[in-house]
Amino acid sequence: MSTPEVSAGYEGDRSFVIRVILPGVESKKEVDAAVVDEPKDGTSRLEITVPSKYELSHPLPFAVPDWMAYGVKFAKKTSTLCVTFERIDEVRVPGLEHFNDNDALYLAQHPTKGRHVRARRDIEPGETILTCAPFVHVVHDRRAGDHCAGCFKDLSRMGNETECVECGEFCGVKYCDEDCRAADTSHVAECSMVRTNAGTGADLRGVRMCLRMIHKRADEPTRFAKVMAALRCEKKSVSAAATKLAAAVRHQTDLGPAEVEDMLGKTRENSHGIVDWKLRQVGTGTYPEASMFNHSCAPNAVVSFAPGGRLNVQCIGVDDYEARADDVSANAEYEWMHMERPVRPPRSIKKGEEVCIAYTELYRPAESRKTTLEKSKGFTCECVRCVNPSVLRAMDRELHAAIDGSEDLVEEHVKEWEEGIDASRAAYTAGNILEAIKSAEEVLRSSADVLRDGHFLRLEARLAAIEARVELACQCYEKDGSREDIIGDWLKVFELCVPALRHMRTHLPFYHPGTVAITQHLALALTELSAFSPEPDDYDRTDAVEDAQTQIMSMNALNAIFTIGNVQKKLNGIEDGDPETSCGLNAPTNDLHFLKRLGRGLEITARMTQITALASVMEGVRFIDKVSVPFAFMDGSLSRFPAFPLSQSLSRSTQ
Fold it and tell me: Which residues pair with 128 in a beta bridge?
């Protein structure tokens, strides 16, 4: 048998290619090619094995990290194995200079991915890796009356002593103070259009963004030229909207319809919705640096917004969706919350690994995400959640499928359910809390025997119901509600949060902001319910054992308070001792703000004293004999909470 021939080297596109002629080999299936680390010099080597024929090893001039993919092809005619390692180079682009000095990120160029962002070093979850101001921004049409057009501050929270400032032309746009109005120089470009279309209900954000771009072109021509050259968009023929807009501004600028179309496209494809701490959209901004991040439905970074519309990108780590799929498949016959399942926290982003964010709602089935991305962004996602067969098979069906035998009923009722969810949100916004609860919970009731429990419509209904139920529970304190009413309200919040979290933590990233928000509500419900447990002085050891689950709930509640504070800091890049930094746009600066909204003083120190006393009374009690349900909060600090209906335990506290 002839000896294998090996050749290796860099090729024209800077890829490193190894070609091996393997005499007598007829198929790729006969060959095993694997990369092995070489710890002595920090490089790697390629090992090629053909059982009973060849064992070859070839050194590589670089290290191959676990995340790096490499191509393996086999040519039957020549019996040649070809292994390709793509070279990914750092690039420097005028207008995107921020990446040049960023210690965590660099801008990279890939033959097929194009420009994207990679890690310059290992990045841990919780690190803030990018902060940038919007190049242009605009307040949402529906928020123009109650949010500052300059910094997006919630004007309804300013108090009676401070009055907002309106645009001098009385177009309806408002500011928190004169400084914000003076700083928003781009508003002059859109003012007449806003004034003309006031009250029509037309969504003008796209046009207003483009008008602000045109103003920026005149005001900062050098920077504008760099940014526009740096941004990319799909080339399209000139639209009627571009022609109309070019005609409307021809007395101010020399832009033609083609240039306006290019500006509209780049504004549309490179903008981010600006959301507040409750994830409600309050505006839109163009952030050139942030637009370089590719999308993934399994992102390892998340975007949040600080006062003034400044965009922050935080690392949330890399989640192992294949392991999640294995867990779900292995326990398919059981409810998620009844599984002895370990929490799988995300790992760090490794040096050289791509950093991705999400462009779309993640709690959606793969087909829905695909349609949204193709329509709004013009590409098809190929992340692990979209193309991995085991992940799709184990997890995706829960997000969109009906209960077996009920498929025909989905088509009949889906519009009704969507309208019910919209009605709940509208009622909540209008302050009609009882109507919001009624609409959301009717969707849950009527879909219970039709949709799988993790269906995205049932989750949306639960989220709407949770927000309204929390508000109702807080109002119960303000109105001096009865003990039974208070417990009943918080018990409803608890019962809604548990299944919502169960599904969100299965399908969403470990540190997803939406999961954090619902965990926050669950922590609040646990805290309030545990406040009605007996005092430790009333316990003897037998009582403590019998009521162990109630007390574990109490301990978990306090632990959750501080856990949530830590997670919020991770998501918003807040350093210890930095009280002026808030947990998102318009969020209170106090980590315990969700407790203070109750309008009554919950003494944390006193509760911790009570927990300590209970712990000493119960010393030696094996809680695991009483509590069989594992449940961990965001950072895994909470081990378990009651498996039985809470009402059984709480009934003892209200008698």
Answer: 314
Residues 6+ apart with CB under 8 A from 400: 365, 367, 368, 455, 456
Both tokens of 126, joined, read 């919780």
pLDDT value of position 627? 27
Q: Are strands 356-357 and 136-139 parallel, antiparallel or unpaired?
A: unpaired
Q: Could you write out the DSSP letters of every residue in 554-601?
A: HHHHHHHHHHHHHHHHHHHTPPTT-TT--SSTT--S-TTHHHHTTSS-
Neighbours of 115 (CB within 10 A): 16
Write the CATH number of the domain with boundaries 5-87: 2.60.40.790
What averages of pLDDT result for each successive group of 10 residues across the chain (655 residues)?
84 82 90 85 86 89 75 90 83 88 90 85 87 90 85 77 70 85 85 58 67 87 90 79 80 82 84 81 91 94 85 89 82 44 74 92 92 85 92 87 81 92 92 95 94 93 93 77 79 86 84 77 70 47 43 48 49 50 54 38 46 44 30 34 37 39
Helix (H, G, I), strand (E, B) or coil at 390: helix
E strands along 339-398, which residues?
Answer: 356-357
Strands 294-295 and 356-357: parallel
**The tokens of 323 are what?**
């392991």
Q: What is the DSSP string of 193-212?
A: HHHHTTTS----HHHHHHHH
Record the tokens describing residue 151, joined without a space. Answer: 């910094």
**C-beta separation of 359 from 377 below 8 A:** yes
Selection from 222, 224, 197, 221 nearest residue 208 by Cα: 197
SS3 226: helix
Looking at residue 307, its amino acid is: P
- β 43-50/165-166 pair status: unpaired
Instruction: Report d(CA 402, CA 408) in Å as an integer.
Output: 9
**Distance between CA atoms of residues 497 and 463, nearest Å:** 8
* Eight-state DSSP code of residue 341: -
Among residues 600, 514, 516, 636, the alpha carbon closest in space to that of 565 is found at: 516
List the domain boundaries for the chain. 5-87, 134-286, 497-655
Contacts of residue 89, defined as CB under 8 A and 6 or more positions apart, other chains included, come to 14, 108, 109
The pTM of the full predicted model, rounded to 2 decimals, is 0.75
